[in-house]
Amino acid sequence: MTSRTEIVEDLMGRFPHVPREAVIKEDLLRGGLAFDDSALTDNEHGDVKPKSYFIFSFDHRTLPELGTAALRRPPEEIVLTGGPYELRRTVVSVRTNPASPYRVKTGDDGLMRLYLDDKPIADVGVPPMPDYYRHTLTNGKSVMEVAPTIQWGYLIYLTAFRVCQYFGAKEECQYCDINHNWRQHKAAGRPYTGVKPVDEILEALEIIDKHDTARTSQAYTLTGGSITSHVGGKAEADFYGQYAQAIEERFPGRWIGKVVAQALPKADVQRFKDYGIQIYHPNYEVWDKKLFELYCPGKERYVGREEWHRRILDSAEIFGPRNVIPNFVAGVEMAAPHGFTTVDEAIASTAEGLEYFMSRGITPRFTTWCPEPTTPLGRTNPQGAPLEYHVRLLETYRAVMEANGLTSPPGYGPAGAGRAVFSVSSFMDSLAPNDEPAPAV
Ligand code: SF4
Q1: Which residues pair with 115 in a beta bridge?
Q2: I want to staple 394 with a disulfide (CB 3.0 to 4.6 A). Which of 235, 254, 258, 430 is the partner?
């Protein structure tokens, strides 16, 4: 039987132009990692920044199945360096999987390392508890709950609406556990605000702004579930837009404002822009027509794939193509029983979608699929997509981008191996370095 180490090293050998850091990072994102108790945090009362569960669970087990890691959270992210592959600093979002061949533990020398198949492969750094997490709002809520930061502090992640109005098997996207994640946090008695009041977000941002004296936080993302009717009397553009308006009034230009929302009609997209948003993410999720229809039944029914794509192109007229950055979920193309069965076919389909947008100056980006166990696709594909798909996607993504004369998208911080902070995919690690300074780690 081939060990995971052999698979990883084989891919590093066959794709030498994909950074080794990205190969390891993709494998950790697709399959998760285990933590010895010695490597867990003391939640919000210790010196290490804990996992905030900023939107989805991004775990391979439900909370009740995580054991100690459900009581003492793992860190939000880890940073890898050194080891036999001589890794440059690589920030990786934490997706917990007690059965993973990757394990973080603290050695007898007190140093934390990442092990693969029981052999140490990297030194592990953990994010220090930010000063702003040590303060609470006047109503007692934590900053981590209201305005968590990810990407080593670069991005403030504002999930304003913690559930999605695409609800149930006939509407929810088949790889998405937003609604389950809300339920499991509620069941565990954790604070988990369904709809975040504007005032709470402003107060949390006030605390961040005051204590983030190094100005590590550079951007905020407004996001949450899709709104097909109304929340608080507002439809989607006005619901998410109201936060941007309030933030930009209080802190004009302090951060780059981004919104992840549905592909909305042009007039709604214009409202986002008028509210002060600079970057729009109308995610197209998966390129293939049949897979979009099967995996995104709510979006297909309410909007439809062709209309979705047309709206993405329309939004480029409002934001400018550079500032329209639709996401896709890398890996779901290969999920059984309907996905592609070969890496060649899956890459060809994904490349077609990349070319469609990039030839029009729009730069999609991707997150690496985490097959969460309570989703239909996660249940039938607990191993996710093959690592080779993810490695070849990095190669293809860069090639299509460069062939179209594009560079790394704005609002993602530094690019390049050893410099990137974007943590839920290694696309930024595998692109050419840009001008943004890499943060000290
Ligand atoms: S639209 Fe789909 S991916 Fe987005 S939150 Fe709803 S179910 Fe999840």
Answers
A1: 103, 120
A2: 430
Nearest CA to ligand 1 atom 2: 173
The answer, yes or no, to whether any atom of ligand 1 lies below 6 A from the CB of 226, is yes
* CATH code of the region 132-403: 3.20.20.70
Ligand 1 atom closest to Cα of 171? 7
pLDDT at residue number 191: 84
| pLDDT value at residue 192 | 86
Read off the pLDDT band of 193 (50, 70, 90): confident
Structure confidence at residue 1 (pLDDT): 65
* Bond preceding residue 337 cis, omega within 30 of 0: yes
CA of 172 to the centre of ligand 1 (A): 6
Estimate to the nearest angstrom the gap between the alpha carbon of 302 and the chain centroid: 25
| Domain assignments of the chain as residue spans, ordered by start | 4-125, 132-403
Hey, whose CA ends up nearest to atom 4 of ligand 1? 225
CA of 161 to the centre of ligand 1 (A): 11
pLDDT digit string, tens, across residues 384-435:
999 999 999 999 999 999 999 999 999 999 999 999 999 999 999 999 999 8
Q: How do residues 273-293 score in pLDDT, each as one tens digit?
A: 999 999 999 999 999 999 999
Among protein residues, the one whose CA lies closest to atom 1 of ligand 1: 226
Residue appearing with tokens 């802190």: 251
DSSP string, 247-262: HHHHSTTSSEEEEEE-
Q: What is the 3-state secondary structure (H, E, C) of 330-375?
A: ECHHHCCCCCCCCHHHHHHHHHHHHHHHHCCCCCCEEEECCCCCCC
